[in-house]
Structures are given as C-alpha cells and as structure tokens.
Design brief:
By secondary structure, the protein is an alpha/beta fold. The protein has one helix and four strands; from the N terminus they run βαβββ. The protein has a two-stranded parallel ribbon.
Length: 52
C-alpha cells in the first residue's frame, strides 16, 4: 500500500507519478490519497493546497 497525505497536488507530473506507483505495488496493492477538500471552509490552509 502507498499512502500519500497532502502530497498529490504537489506533483508536476501526476500521471507519470501514479503510473510508477502502480508499477511498484504488488498485485492487488492500493494507493490511498488524503487531501484537504477545497469545499471545506474550516480548513485554514492556502487554496492551492486543497483539491476539489
């Protein structure tokens, strides 16, 4: 399993990064993305660090 917390929005090449992660996983492996929701006004971080 690969877990990324508040990181996906930082990738310059997200498609390529995800392809390499998938290749690195064992069969049946999973990728977990944890990001701050852009729609949540209670999260007091810069908008560019939130995903919709």
């Amino acid at each position: 399993m690969a877990i990324m917390i508040d990181a996906y929005h930082e990738f310059s090449y997200p498609l390529e990064m995800m392809q390499h992660l998938v290749e690195a996983l064992k069969p049946g492996g999973r990728i977990v993305l944890v990001e701050y929701r852009a729609e949540d006004p209670n999260v007091l971080i810069k908008e560019l660090h939130k995903l919709a």
